[in-house]
Design goal:
By secondary structure, the protein is an alpha+beta fold. Among the domains are: 117 residues, Uridine Diphospho-n-acetylenolpyruvylglucosamine Reductase, domain 3; 105 residues, 3-Layer(aba) Sandwich (Vanillyl-alcohol Oxidase, Chain A, domain 3). Helix content is 37%, strand content 20%. The chain is built from 19 helices and 18 strands. A 7-stranded antiparallel beta sheet has the order 15-12-14-13-17-18-16, sandwiched between helices. Strands 5-6-10-8-9 form a 5-stranded antiparallel beta sheet. Strands 1-2-4-3 form a 4-stranded mixed beta sheet. Helix 2 packs antiparallel against helix 5 and helix 17 packs antiparallel against helix 18. The longest helix is centred in the last third of the chain and has 20 residues. The protein starts with 21 loop residues before the first helix and ends in a 14-residue tail after the last helix. The structure holds flavin-adenine dinucleotide (FAD). Belongs to the FAD-binding oxidoreductase/transferase type 4 family.
């Protein structure tokens, strides 16, 4: 479990240092050309706070002076998110933009009052949940404002109410996912939202970014869990959502969900909750080749028998996973798969959390061509499912450029999209002595298509670590732009904003700008995010 101090970690995910086992290091060296060069870390400093003294006093009157922080450590602790480039910047490579102050409101009314004050003073406001954005969503950009504050919602940490009959719970925006699960478990419920950022991300952040958890096939994406929202805007409070379904015009809740702090600050979310699972079952299967794997998952999706967790790794991701695990069990598994005639193993993890017996039978009746490799693999995945960010810390510490990106498209274009992104990333990152490893998996499937999630590892270019990843990311975005969505769940932030107009059209960008003009007429909310202007 992460603690309060971890909330401020910006150069890594966790204080807990994980080291790669020797066999994993050997594998990385031989496959990628990694040698023992490390990017030196240097002390990062915050620029001088530009928050006018009088504005500081006004904010202190609202939240109390102890809750307006201007010390360098507090500001650096909310300077940007947790993408590879953010982590690099906090290690000393790249620029860190710190907010001019951190403001910690205690409740929704204080949030509304802070926004009104910031609108009056022309001060930018970056809503800050867990700060796990990987797309620049919490970058402290000033835009045309003289100063910008990080509005950290950490004190909005209450479970407000539970309606057992309707299976609804009202959670404040700053509740972190593990706390939400604990609070709900005390009432016998779960939210079931388990993104890989689970340990640090918040309810408000999930809603603001249309997050997708690893069990999205069973519990839905976060927007499917949102029944109602309470939103603070510079124009006052806005509440949306009075019934499970409504024909009262377009669903304005969905305008707020995914608005990334540009239209208002979500202070409370009424979420749909489910009974806590009493039985869980996770299992591993192997398909021979990516195309067969995709076909199998598509059939599960179209027959509506997906497991709650349905995650298909391509051969590269499967190979890397086995290589990094090592040991005799992996050797035995490889031998077993060879004996079963599998030449291109693609690991499929299936996990059921409700009505397990019946639903598992339905899934397995439809699953074709899969070799069963047992519960230990499935359970190992479940127990290690939040380990990724710690492994990223370990990899970065030994000089690896390691980052992820994601997209989604229709089944008929999925193969093309995967090939295009792989080619773009491989082309941009290959260099003498540096061979990239590009892995991919499907973890969110729908009747009409699926998401693709890419992980890249390559020895860091010590002379230009920032440019190395920026060029690769741009190449991948350009490949994606023609074939799928620019983001399936990481959101737009700053990084994807140049590609938004291609996806929603110039008219779509204008619609968003018009809505913003109504809700945030002075443009103080999250400057520079979501829309390209
Ligand atoms: C290692 C790692 C793994 C990840 N895995 C996943 C994953 O599996 N699935 C997934 O969906 N995402 C994932 N992400 C991305 C990220 O965790 C999500 O975007 C998450 O929803 C952000 O929540 P947060 O509380 O950290 O929000 P923040 O990072 O604090 O904010 C994200 C955006 O929402 C805005 N915002 C935050 N709170 C509010 C609020 N109350 N009201 C209005 N706006 C607000 C911010 O201004 C910002 O634009 C991952 C990130 C990391 C670093």
């Amino acid at each position: 479990m992460m603690n309060r101090e971890d909330h401020l970690r910006r150069a890594d995910w966790s204080a807990e240092q994980v080291e790669l086992p020797p066999h994993a290091l050997r594998w990385l060296r031989s496959e990628t050309g990694l040698n023992d060069v490390h990017t030196p870390t240097r002390q990062v400093t915050a620029s001088v706070s530009e928050l006018p003294e009088k504005a500081r006093d006004v904010l202190a009157d609202i939240v109390g002076s102890a809750n307006v922080l201007t010390a360098d450590g507090d500001r650096l602790g909310r300077a940007g998110g947790l993408s590879y480039l953010d982590l690099l910047a906090h290690k000393g490579s790249g620029a860190v933009a710190a907010p001019d102050a951190v403001v910690l409101p205690a409740d929704p009314d204080e949030v509304t009052a802070v926004l009104a004050a910031c609108a009056e003073w022309g001060i930018g406001v970056v809503p800050f949940g867990g700060g796990t954005s990987v797309v620049g969503g919490v970058a402290a950009l000033r835009g045309d404002k003289q100063a910008v504050i990080a509005l950290d919602l950490v004190r909005l940490d209450q479970l407000v109410s539970v309606d057992r009959v309707s299976r609804l719970a009202v959670l404040q925006a700053g509740v972190r996912a593990p706390a939400a699960e604990q609070l709900l478990a005390a009432h016998g419920f779960t939210l079931g939202h388990m993104p890989q950022s689970f340990e640090r991300a918040t309810i408000g952040g999930f809603a603001a970014t249309r997050s997708a958890g690893q069990a999205s096939s069973g519990y839905g994406r976060f927007e499917d869990m949102v029944e109602a929202v309470r939103v603070a805007t510079p124009r006052g409070e806005w509440r949306l959502g009075v019934a499970p379904a409504s024909a009262a015009g377009p669903d304005l809740r969905q305008l707020v969900v995914g608005s990334e702090g540009t239209l208002g600050v979500i202070t409370e979310v009424t979420v749909r909750i489910r009974p806590l699972p009493t039985v869980r079952r996770y299992e591993g299967f192997v398909l021979d080749g990516w195309e067969r794997g995709v076909e199998a998952v598509r059939e599960l999706a179209q027959h509506r028998v997906l497991a709650d967790v349905t995650r298909l790794s391509d051969m590269d991701e499967t190979t890397v996973g086995l290589a990094l695990t090592g040991g005799w069990k992996v050797k035995a598994l490889r031998a077993y798969l060879k004996a079963r005639g599998v030449s291109e193993p693609c690991l499929l993890i299936l996990g059921w959390e409700s009505d397990v017996q019946r639903r598992r039978a339905a899934t397995l009746n439809t699953l074709r061509g899969a070799v069963r490799v047992g519960r230990p693999l499935g359970e190992a995945w479940r127990h290690g499912r939040f380990a990724g960010p710690r492994q990223r810390d370990a990899l970065m510490n030994i000089g690896v450029c390691v980052e992820t990106l994601e997209t989604a498209t229709h089944w008929s274009k999925l193969g093309l999209l995967r090939s295009a992104v792989r080619a773009a990333l491989t082309g941009a990152l290959s260099a003498p002595g540096r061979k990239p490893v590009v892995m991919c998996h499907i973890s969110h499937s729908y009747e009409t298509g699926a998401s693709l999630y890419f992980t890249v590892m390559v020895p860091r270019d010590e002379r230009d670590p920032v440019g190395q990843w920026k060029r690769a990311k741009q190449a991948a975005c350009e490949a994606i732009e023609k074939l799928g969505t620019i983001t399936h769940h990481h959101a737009v932030g700053v990084d994807h904003s140049p590609y938004l107009a291609t996806e929603i059209g110039e008219l779509g960008v204008e619609v968003l700008a018009a809505v913003k003009q109504v809700l945030d007429p002075t443009g103080v909310l999250n400057p520079g995010k979501l829309t390209p202007r």
